[in-house]
Design brief:
With about 850 residues, the chain is of the alpha/beta class. The protein folds into 5 domains: about 10-135, Rossmann fold, CATH 3.40.50.2300; about 155-255, PAS domain (Beta-Lactamase, 2-Layer Sandwich); about 270-440, Beta-Lactamase; about 450-600, Alpha-Beta Plaits (2-Layer Sandwich), CATH 3.30.70; about 625-860, EAL domain (TIM Barrel, Alpha-Beta Barrel), CATH 3.20.20. The strands form 6 sheets. An 8-stranded mixed beta barrel has the order 24-25-27-28-29-30-31-32, surrounded by 5 helices. Strands 13-12-11-16-15-14 form a 6-stranded antiparallel sheet, with helices on both faces. A 5-stranded parallel sheet has the order 2-1-3-4-5, sandwiched between helices. Helix 9 (about 260-285) packs antiparallel against helix 10 (about 290-305), helix 10 (about 290-305) packs antiparallel against helix 14 (about 415-445) and helix 17 (about 490-510) packs across helix 18 (about 535-550). The relative contact order is 0.03.
Length: about 850
C-alpha cells in the first residue's frame, strides 16, 4: 500500500453487517489508504454524499426498503461523476445490463470479491477520464463562446474569403465600418467596395500569394463607405488549407485606421509647419531685404511644409493684390502669374480666396475644390493644374499681403493647423517689420534723419579714404542763431530750415565733394584741394555766402540764416576722422567768438582748443569729486542796511592753477552741458547753507542761486527741484534767479516753471532786468517776486541822466506790479544813496561786501 497517496473515500450502501465486513476486508487489497462510511437509507445516502464527498460508491443490489437501483438514481442525481459499483449476491444478466445502462460502472458478485479491486481501479480510471473529457469539453465550449463573443463584439472586421473573392464569413462590425449589412456583402465580390486603384493592387497580388501559400500583413486599403466617404482599413490575413494542403480560403481581420492615419498625417503636417516656423527664424537672420525674406518663406513652405505650391501677394499703391513671391509646382505658378494683379474691395461672390482673405481680413480655406460649390472657371482652373485644396491667410493687421498655400490632396484645415499657419503669417509679418526696422536703423546710422545727408558714422567711414586718395579741404559750417529758431518757432520749423539749408549746400558743392550732417545744425563738407589754406577758405566762404544770400522758404515764411565756417587741410593739419572733426569744432567756436564768417586752422587755435579740452576734463573731475566751492555775496536792505541774505556764486579752485575765473569756466560748463550737474550741485549746497544759518539762529535770511538757460530747458528741471525741496514743505530760504532774456525765449514755458518754483516755496527774481526785450504785458504775467537791476545800469546811475530816469521807471514799474527791486553791482556810496532815494528795496555789490567763502561770510556777518 502506498501511504503517500491520498486516502480513497468509499461510501458503502449496505444493510448487512456480514456483507459489510466482507467488503471492508476486500478493500484492504487496494494499493492506497481507504476511508469508508456506510449508510443503509436514502436520507443517510443523500447526507453522506454532501458531507463525505466519496470518490466511489459500493452498493448492495437487493436491500429491503431501499433498493440498489434507487441508490444509483440518488447518486446520479447528486454527484453524477462519482463511480457506482454494485456488489451483490445474485443478479441476473438482464438486471446487470440494465444497471450498466442506468450508469453503474460495474457489478461484482459477493462470492467473487477478488474482482472488486480491478473493478474499482477501472471505475476510478474511467471516471477520471470522463471528468477530463468533460473538463476539456467545457473548456472548448467556453473558448468557443469567448471567441464567438470576441468575433461578434470586436470593432474590427473579421472575415473569410474564398479564392473566388466571395465572403464566406463576416462578423457584424463591417456594418459599423462600411455601413453595409453583412447580408449585402455576401451578394457581391468582397472587393467590390474597395477603391478601384486598391482593388487592382489586391487582385494583382492574390495569385502570387495563393501560389506561395502566404498571407499579407498591415496593408492599408481604401474602401468606399455606404455614405460615399473613404475609409482606410489596415488588413492582415492568413491562408487556410484543404485536406490536400492547398489554400482554400483566406481568413483576415481589417481594422478601421482612418482616424489614426488622419491623425498621423495631421501630426506630420503640423511637424512640417513647425519645421517651416523654425527655419523661418533662421531665414530672418540670413535675409538681406524683404524680397529675399518672402522668397525664402515660399521656398521653405514648399520644401519643409510639403505644400504643392506657395505664393505671397502684396497690396500695391493702386489697390491691387500683386504677386511678390512664389515657389512650387510650375503649373500652379503659371496659373497665378496669368491672373495678374487682383483688384481688391470687389464683391465676395466674384473674388478668389486670396482677394477674400485680404478684403475680409480672415483665413479662407477650400478643403476640396472637387466637392465645393464654387464658380466653375475657378474649379476648372484648379483641376487643370492638379490643385485639390487651398488656404489663403492675410498677413499683418491690417493686412498688407496674403499667403496662399496649395495642395494636390483634399485637406481639412482644422483649428490647430490654422493656428500654426496663423503663427507662420505672424512670423512673416514680424520678420518683415524686423527687416524694415533693420534697414531703417542702418539708414539712420549712415544718414541724418532730418536731412538725409550722410551722418557722422558715414562721414568717418568716407573721409579717410578720400584723404588717402587726394589732399582735401574740409570745412564745418553751422547756422547762426539756430537755437533761437528752434526755441522760438519750434523743432519742426528748425528741422525744415535745416532741410532747406542742406538742399542749398548740396547744390553748391564742387563736383565729387562729400557733404555730411553729423549733428544738430553742423555740416561738414570736403572737396579735393591741392592749394593752400587761404584758397580753401576762399572757396568755403563763397559757398557759405551763396548759401545764405537768399532767404529760405520755411512754412510759408522767408527766413534768412547766416552760416559760420571753419576750414583745415588734410592730411596737412589732421589725418583722422576724429581729429578733423575735433579741430573743426574748435576753429568754428573761435570763428563764432570773433564773429568771423570763415576761419582757418592755426596752431594758436589748436592750442586754445587743447586747453579747452583739458579744462573740460578738469571740470568733469571737479563735479565728480566735489571740487567746487560756494562763495556768498551779502545783500542788504537799502533803507536800514540790515542783512537780508546773500547770493550764492559758483567758484572753482583748480588743484594746480588755483582759483579759476568764472568768466573762463562758466561758458565751458554751458557749452558742454555740465552746467546742469553744476547747477544741481549749487542748489544742494545752498540749501545746506540755509539750514546751517537757521541752526546758528539767523532766521529770515534768504539765499539766492542762479539758474542757467540750459537748466531751465531740461524736462526734468522741476522734478529735480521737487525732489530737493519737497521734504521741507515750502519752509526753506532758497530763492531762484533767472535772467530776463531767458524768460522771453518761451514765455508760456517760463510762466509754468516760475509758478512751479513758487509753489515749492522759492522766491523768484528776474535777473539782469533791463537788458532783455520784455514788455509790460509779459512782465505782468510772470509769477515773480523781485526784479534785479543789472549792474551796467547801476554803474552809470550817477553819470547818466537817461540811466537814472530808466532805473527810476524800472523801480516804479516793479513796485506797481508788487515786485521787490534789488540792485546789483553797487560799488560806490553815491550809487547806494541814489538807489535809496529811488526807493530800491535791496542792494548788493563790492561797496557792501565781496563774494567770500561760507565760513568767512558767517564769521563776518552772522556773529
Amino acid at each position: 500500500m502506498d501511504s503517500m497517496m491520498p486516502a480513497l473515500r468509499i461510501l458503502l450502501v449496505e444493510d448487512s453487517a456480514d456483507d459489510l465486513a466482507l467488503n471492508l476486508r476486500a478493500l484492504r487489497d487496494l494499493d492506497r489508504p481507504v476511508l469508508t462510511e456506510c449508510v443503509a437509507s436514502e436520507p443517510a445516502l443523500r447526507e453522506a454524499l454532501a458531507r463525505f464527498l466519496p470518490d466511489l460508491v459500493l452498493c448492495d443490489f437487493s436491500m429491503p426498503g431501499f433498493s440498489g437501483q434507487e441508490a444509483l438514481r440518488v447518486v446520479h442525481e447528486l454527484t453524477p461523476e462519482t463511480p457506482f459499483i454494485f456488489v451483490s449476491g445474485t443478479i441476473g444478466e438482464e438486471l446487470a445490463i440494465d444497471a450498466l445502462q442506468r450508469g453503474a460502472a460495474d457489478y461484482v458478485l459477493k462470492d467473487n470479491l477478488r474482482r472488486l479491486r480491478p473493478a474499482i481501479e477501472r471505475a476510478l480510471r474511467t471516471a477520471t477520464e470522463r471528468r477530463d473529457r468533460l473538463r476539456i469539453q467545457r473548456a472548448l465550449s467556453i473558448s468557443e463562446e469567448r471567441f464567438r463573443a470576441i468575433v461578434e463584439n470586436t470593432s474590427d472586421w473579421i472575415w473569410e474569403m474564398d479564392l473566388g473573392k466571395r465572403l464566406t464569413y463576416s462578423n457584424r462590425s463591417v456594418a459599423d465600418i462600411l455601413g453595409y449589412p453583412v447580408e449585402a456583402l455576401y451578394e457581391h465580390s468582397a472587393l467590390d467596395f474597395m477603391l478601384a486603384e486598391d482593388r487592382a493592387r489586391v487582385e494583382a497580388a492574390l495569385p502570387g500569394l495563393v501560389a506561395d501559400k502566404r498571407g499579407w500583413k498591415d496593408w492599408i486599403l481604401r474602401w468606399r463607405h455606404r455614405d460615399g466617404s473613404v475609409r482606410l482599413l489596415e488588413s492582415t490575413a492568413q491562408p487556410l488549407f484543404d485536406d490536400e494542403g492547398e489554400v482554400s480560403v483566406y481568413r483576415g481581420i481589417d481594422r478601421d485606421v482612418t482616424l489614426r492615419v488622419q491623425q498621423e498625417q495631421k501630426i506630420r503636417q503640423l511637424a512640417r509647419i513647425h519645421a517651416v516656423l523654425s527655419a523661418l527664424g533662421n531665414a530672418v537672420l540670413r535675409a538681406n531685404d524683404t524680397q529675399e525674406l518672402l522668397d525664402m518663406t515660399c521656398q521653405l513652405t514648399v520644401e519643409q511644409g510639403h505644400f504643392m505650391a506657395a505664393c505671397i501677394g502684396e497690396r500695391t499703391p493702386g489697390g491691387c493684390l500683386a504677386l511678390s513671391s512664389h515657389c512650387g509646382d510650375e503649373r500652379v505658378v503659371r496659373m497665378i502669374e496669368a491672373l495678374g494683379d487682383l483688384p481688391l474691395g470687389g464683391p465676395a461672390q466674384d473674388a478668389r480666396p486670396a482677394q477674400r482673405a485680404f478684403n475680409e481680413a480672415r483665413n479662407i480655406a477650400i478643403a476640396d475644390y472637387g466637392a465645393l460649390s464654387i464658380a466653375e472657371p475657378i474649379r476648372q482652373e484648379m483641376a487643370q493644374v492638379g490643385v485639390a485644396s487651398q488656404i489663403a491667410l492675410p498677413i499683418g493687421t491690417p493686412p498688407w499681403g496674403v499667403l496662399g498655400l496649395f495642395s494636390d490632396k483634399p485637406q481639412e484645415f482644422d483649428a490647430e493647423e490654422i493656428s500654426l499657419l496663423e503663427r507662420l503669417t505672424a512670423e512673416i509679418d514680424y520678420a518683415r517689420k524686423f527687416i524694415a526696422k533693420s534697414e531703417h536703423l542702418e539708414y539712420l546710422a549712415y544718414h541724418n534723419p532730418t536731412t538725409g545727408l550722410p551722418s557722422r558714422v558715414a562721414y568717418r567711414d568716407l573721409i579717410v579714404p578720400r584723404i588717402e586718395r587726394a589732399p582735401q579741404a574740409i570745412a564745418m559750417a553751422d547756422v547762426d542763431r539756430f537755437r533761437y529758431f528752434n526755441q522760438s518757432r519750434g523743432r519742426p520749423f528748425g528741422d525744415q530750415l535745416l532741410r532747406e539749408i542742406a538742399a542749398r549746400l548740396k547744390s553748391l558743392m564742387p563736383h565729387g565733394a562729400l557733404l555730411a550732417h553729423p549733428s544738430d545744425d553742423a555740416f561738414i563738407f570736403a572737396f579735393d584741394h591741392a592749394g593752400d589754406l587761404e584758397a580753401a577758405m576762399g572757396k568755403v566762404d563763397t559757398i557759405l555766402v551763396a548759401c545764405g544770400e537768399q532767404p529760405f522758404l520755411v512754412e510759408g515764411e522767408q527766413v534768412r540764416a547766416r552760416l559760420h565756417g571753419s576750414v583745415l587741410l588734410a592730411p596737412l593739419h589732421e589725418d583722422t576722422a576724429d581729429g578733423i572733426e575735433r579741430t573743426l569744432v574748435a576753429v568754428l567756436a573761435e570763428a563764432q567768438t570773433r564773429d568771423r564768417a570763415v576761419l582757418g586752422f592755426t596752431e594758436e587755435v589748436r592750442s586754445r582748443a587743447t586747453r579747452r579740452v583739458e579744462l573740460e576734463r578738469d571740470l568733469r573731475h571737479a563735479l565728480e569729486n566735489d571740487g567746487f566751492e560756494l562763495y556768498l555775496q551779502p545783500k542788504f536792505h537799502a533803507a536800514t542796511h540790515r542783512l537780508t541774505g546773500a547770493e550764492a556764486l559758483l567758484r572753482w579752485r583748480h588743484p594746480q592753477r588755483g582759483m579759476v575765473s568764472p568768466a573762463e569756466f562758466i561758458p565751458v560748463l554751458e557749452e558742454t552741458g555740465l552746467i546742469v550737474e553744476a547747477g544741481a550741485w549749487v542748489r544742494r549746497h545752498a540749501l545746506k547753507v540755509c539750514q546751517r544759518w537757521r541752526e546758528l539762529g539767523s532766521f529770515g535770511l534768504r539765499l539766492a542761486v542762479n539758474v542757467s538757460p540750459r537748466e531751465l530747458r531740461q524736462l526734468n528741471f522741476i522734478t529735480e527741484c521737487e525732489q530737493l525741496l519737497a521734504p521741507f514743505g515750502g519752509d526753506h530760504d532758497l530763492d531762484i534767479e533767472i535772467t530776463e532774456s531767458m524768460l522771453m525765449d518761451d514765455i508760456a514755458h517760463s510762466i509754468m516753471v516760475l509758478q512751479a518754483l513758487r509753489d515749492l516755496g522759492c522766491r523768484v527774481a528776474i535777473d539782469d532786468f533791463g537788458t532783455g526785450y520784455s514788455s509790460l504785458n509779459y512782465l505782468s504775467r510772470l509769477p515773480a517776486d523781485a526784479l534785479k537791476i543789472d549792474q551796467s545800469f547801476v554803474a552809470l546811475l550817477a553819470l547818466s541822466p537817461d540811466t537814472l530816469s530808466l532805473v527810476t521807471n524800472i523801480i516804479g514799474l516793479a513796485h506797481s506790479l508788487g515786485l521787490k527791486v534789488v540792485a546789483e553791482g553797487v560799488e560806490e556810496e553815491e550809487q547806494a544813496k541814489l538807489l535809496r532815494l529811488l526807493r530800491c528795496d535791496e542792494m548788493q555789490g563790492y561797496f557792501f561786501g565781496r563774494p567770500v567763502p561760507q565760513a568767512q561770510f558767517e564769521e563776518t556777518w552772522l556773529h
